[in-house]
């Protein structure tokens, strides 16, 4: 089938100067907002932000995790500043230890990461009271309004945040590029403006002030930059309502920005704030693209890497100019001094969340685990790191033949982002739950505004079921013009003076490269055929791989390379293998390709950091890891042969000490949603297992992850009677970070696992398909795995 698209004439220049947003005077790279994209230092800017809640993670590991985020392509770190985590008791505001906001922001600055504090005061974030301390709700006031009795403690809270971030604004060279006010408040523009003024009076300063924009939000005119979102799944909808349409639509190319489903558990979709903000005045920027999804007791969705990757890629094709992920890094709720701190039925919320875990199935998990989605997104972020300044101003154009509706699974979903000279073709043939069919004999016809007609590829291809990708159109690589390539662009690197465009083949599609012959004086390929036709040079039959480097000389004597990596070794969600491109690591200063390594260059060190091998590779393969010296300069380390022989995983002995009693009877809240079992249920009904952890594991400096395979409904882990981890059954292994636990308590008492069976009459819980029997509480096996490599010495 030939899919055709006539590209419109280039759009005129974007509106500028219509918004009162301004950066700090004297900023060397001033940030500005146009009607279509953001700029930084006068150049189009495509931020990639990832949410990481510092109060849900140990402060001693923040630096390592921030570097992992940076290596994954995150350029901006966003974090809720959760009021109840800092001032659970009125007047006792804590910024110590894991609450040290200033230290977290300083670490972002140290490693070239921008920072966005999302200061609330109400934030949601699946936190008790949406983040408002209990004592605030006990005041004689109306929260989330301009009630003076509410604004008074808010002003004190904002003043405390302002003091923590003093000197970290852009006027002082700091990392704070934006501040988010409130969250999901859709019908009170006046209150949002009041909060912004209170924050400014508290010393907070940023070039961007933002607000969430879903639900037909009403915002104060031109005061807050609207940010959008979209999730592949939800925990907040009804247990058996099926896959929500508000999620389904994110796997289509569309120019509709709003998602009225986010937060709809607290704001029904029939109640909307208004017609939303005028999209012709603001760029399409996001802060909550689903990097995963939490589990509530009544609904426990599974989110796969392909879901996250397809959603992210589709948003770029739709016209996104800011990719913002929630969550990019999971975490654990802190232990409250007065109460548990999770969202729950007991606090009047529609959903029961686990007491501790906030893993969110994120690209980096609750204990810093690498997930397949991390590698999928990193490839997209490599593209944006090198070509985001070209993509951001490009217009998104949709083909005339559109899917007939959200139930249409037969029409190919594709779009083009382009300007007058170049573009990218985006295809998404994946969505969760309902596989899309393959599309055989597919070509694309592109009519450029200058009258040029292009049909690609030269031979029709089959678009595989489950594929999502983009192809470059008219991409200039140094002096050569790549008219198209049927491989996804990854990044550009410098190889000893040769400019190399790295591409990745797509599983099931043979790579074909088309070059403008007038920009090539000679070309050689290690395999395949080189065909000259109609002013174009086609390279077909290329065997992709780490040695598949097409070398080009340009008429001006330039040297260009096109490296096409092998798709059969990709971390394909269909085959679960590892990308060669996992060795590509991001850094603000760029990367250098060196055969089997990609080194990161920095002005601070040589290199500043490197992550290889891929996290899933065994230690025996050698490699390196991130380590920091006392002064914060990151350098490369390599394993010596005698250090790579240590065990990296093994079995754990687990013994049953008490069989399960009768499953607790189902209960529900006022909405009829099933409620989670309570503490006393674990005392009377739970099966109990004992895990004795060998001393050698407790002594390992590399971090150990326990993996428990289990059936049942809800599981909790204890050291003594202290709750240290929990999980709702969702068909996934239970992982526990051993280094989070009190080693002396584990030595003395081991780890106790308490597992509740699900009642046979419990019909109000959604579980992913294929989940093992949950009416029997049982551990079927346990293993341990090293989270990081053994201690290493500098090479």
Tell me about this structure.
By secondary structure, the protein is of the alpha+beta class. It has three domains: 47-387, TIM Barrel (Alpha-Beta Barrel); 399-643, beta-galactosidase, domain 2 (3-layer Sandwich), CATH 2.102.20; 649-793, Jelly Rolls. 14% of the residues lie in helices and 28% in strands. It has an eight-stranded parallel β-sheet with strand order 7-6-5-12-11-10-9-8, with helices on one face. A hairpin with a 5-residue loop joins strand 18 (439-447) and strand 19. Helix 5 packs across helix 6 (189-201) and helix 8 (305-318) packs parallel to helix 9. It starts with a strand and ends with a strand. Mean pLDDT is 88; it is low at 568-645 and 789-795.
Summarize the structure.
By secondary structure, the protein is of the alpha+beta class. Helices cover 14% and strands 28% of the residues. It has 3 domains: 47-387, TIM Barrel (Alpha-Beta Barrel); 399-643, beta-galactosidase, domain 2 (3-layer Sandwich); 649-793, Jelly Rolls (Sandwich), CATH 2.60.120.
List the helices and strands and how they pair.
Layout: E1 2-6, E2 31-33, E3 38-40, E4 43-45, E5 48-51, H1 62-71, E6 76-80, H2 83-86, H3 101-110, E7 114-118, H4 134-137, H5 148-164, E8 178-180, H6 189-201, E9 208-212, E10 225-230, H7 245-248, E11 286-290, H8 305-318, E12 323-326, E13 331-332, E14 357-358, H9 372-391, E15 395-397, E16 414-418, E17 423-428, E18 439-447, E19 453-463, E20 468-477, E21 480-485, E22 488-495, E23 498-504, E24 513-516, E25 522-524, E26 529-533, E27 536-540, E28 549-553, E29 559-565, E30 591-594, E31 597-600, E32 626-628, E33 634-638, E34 649-651, E35 654-658, H10 679-684, E36 687-691, H11 695-698, E37 704-711, E38 714-719, E39 722-728, E40 734-737, H12 743-749, E41 751-756, E42 778-786, E43 793-794
Parallel strand pairs: 1-18, 5-6, 5-12, 6-7, 8-9, 9-10, 10-11, 11-12, 23-29
Antiparallel strand pairs: 2-3, 3-4, 13-14, 15-16, 16-17, 17-20, 18-19, 20-21, 21-24, 22-23, 24-27, 25-28, 26-27, 28-29, 30-31, 32-33, 33-43, 34-42, 35-36, 36-41, 37-40, 37-42, 38-39, 38-41
Helix pairs in contact: 5-6, 8-9
């Amino acid at each position: 089938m030939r899919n055709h698209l006539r590209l419109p004439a280039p759009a005129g220049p974007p509106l500028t100067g219509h918004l009162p947003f301004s950066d700090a005077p004297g900023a060397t790279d001033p940030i500005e907002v146009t009607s279509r994209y953001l700029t930084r230092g006068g150049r189009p800017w495509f931020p990639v932000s990832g949410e990481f809640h510092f109060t849900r993670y140990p402060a001693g590991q923040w630096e390592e995790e921030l570097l992992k985020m940076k290596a994954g392509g995150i350029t901006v770190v966003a974090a809720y500043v959760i009021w109840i985590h800092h001032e659970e008791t009125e007047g006792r505001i804590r910024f110590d230890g894991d609450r040290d906001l200033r230290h977290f922001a300083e670490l972002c600055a140290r490693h070239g990461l921008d920072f966005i504090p999302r200061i609330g005061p109400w934030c949601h974030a699946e936190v008790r009271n949406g983040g408002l301390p209990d004592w605030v709700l006990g005041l004689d006031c109306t929260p989330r309004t301009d009630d003076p009795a509410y604004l008074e403690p808010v002003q004190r809270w904002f003043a405390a945040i302002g003091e923590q971030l003093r000197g970290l604004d852009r006027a002082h060279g700091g990392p704070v590029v934006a501040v988010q006010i409130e969250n999901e408040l859709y019908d009170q523009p006046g209150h949002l403006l009041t909060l912004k003024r209170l924050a400014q009076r508290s010393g907070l300063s940023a070039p961007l002030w933002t607000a969430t924009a879903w639900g037909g939000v009403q915002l104060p005119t031109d005061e807050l930059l609207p940010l959008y979102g979209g999730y592949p799944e939800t925990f907040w909808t009804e247990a058996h309502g099926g896959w929500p349409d508000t999620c389904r639509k994110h796997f289509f190319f569309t120019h509709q920005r709003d998602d009225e489903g986010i937060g709809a558990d607290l704001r029904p979709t029939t109640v909307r704030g208004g017609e939303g903000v005028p999209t012709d005045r603001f760029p399409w920027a996001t802060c909550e693209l689903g990097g995963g999804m939490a589990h509530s007791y009544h609904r426990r969705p599974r989110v796969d890497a392909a879901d996250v990757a397809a959603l992210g890629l589709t948003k770029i094709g739709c016209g996104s100019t800011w990719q913002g992920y929630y969550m990019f890094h999971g975490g654990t709720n802190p232990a409250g001094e007065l109460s548990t701190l999770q969202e729950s039925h007991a606090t009047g919320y529609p959903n029961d969340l686990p007491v501790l875990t906030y893993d969110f199935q994120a690209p980096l998990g609750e204990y810093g685990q690498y997930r397949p989605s991390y590698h999928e997104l990193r490839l997209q972020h490599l593209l944006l790191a090198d070509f985001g300044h070209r993509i951001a101003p490009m217009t998104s154009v949709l083909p005339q033949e559109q899917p007939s509706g959200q139930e249409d699974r037969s029409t190919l979903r594709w779009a083009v982002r382009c300007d007058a000279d170049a573009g990218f073709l985006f295809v998404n043939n994946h969505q969760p739950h309902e596989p899309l069919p393959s599309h055989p004999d597919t070509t694309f016809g592109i009519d450029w505004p200058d009258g040029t007609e292009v049909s690609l590829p030269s031979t029709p291809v089959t678009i595989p079921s489950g594929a999502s990708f983009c192809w470059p159109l008219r991409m200039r690589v140094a002096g050569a013009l790549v008219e198209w390539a049927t491989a996804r662009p990854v990044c550009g690197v410098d190889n000893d003076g040769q400019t190399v465009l790295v591409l990745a083949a797509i599983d099931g599609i043979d790579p074909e490269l088309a070059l403008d012959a007038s920009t090539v004086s000679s070309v050689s390929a290690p395999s395949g055929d080189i065909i000259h036709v109609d002013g174009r040079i086609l390279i077909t039959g290329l065997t992709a791989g780490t040695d598949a480097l097409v070398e080009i000389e340009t008429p001006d004597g330039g040297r260009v390379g096109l490296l096409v990596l092998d798709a059969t070794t990709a971390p394909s969600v269909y085959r679960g293998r590892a990308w060669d491109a996992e060795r590509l690591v991001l850094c603000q200063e760029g990367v250098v390709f060196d055969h089997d390594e990609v080194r990161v260059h920095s002005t601070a060190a040589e290199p500043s950091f490197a992550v290889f091998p891929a996290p899933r590779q065994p230690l025996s393969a050698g490699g390196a890891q991130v380590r920091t010296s006392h002064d914060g300069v990151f350098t490369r380390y390599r394993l010596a042969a005698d250090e790579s022989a240590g065990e990296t995983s093994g079995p754990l002995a687990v013994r049953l000490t008490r069989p399960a009693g009768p499953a607790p009877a189902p209960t529900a809240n006022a909405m009829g949603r099933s409620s989670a079992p309570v503490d006393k249920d674990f005392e009377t009904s739970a099966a109990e297992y004992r895990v004795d952890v060998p001393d050698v594991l407790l002594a390992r400096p590399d971090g150990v992850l326990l993996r428990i395979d289990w059936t049942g409904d809800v599981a909790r882990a204890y050291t003594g009677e202290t709750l240290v981890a929990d999980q709702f059954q969702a068909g996934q292994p239970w992982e526990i970070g051993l280094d989070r636990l009190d080693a002396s308590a584990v030595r003395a008492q081991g780890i106790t696992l308490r597992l509740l069976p699900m009642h046979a009459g419990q019909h109000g819980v959604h579980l992913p398909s294929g989940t093992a029997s949950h009416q029997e509480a049982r551990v079927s096996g346990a293993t341990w795995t090293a989270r990081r490599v053994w201690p290493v010495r500098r090479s």
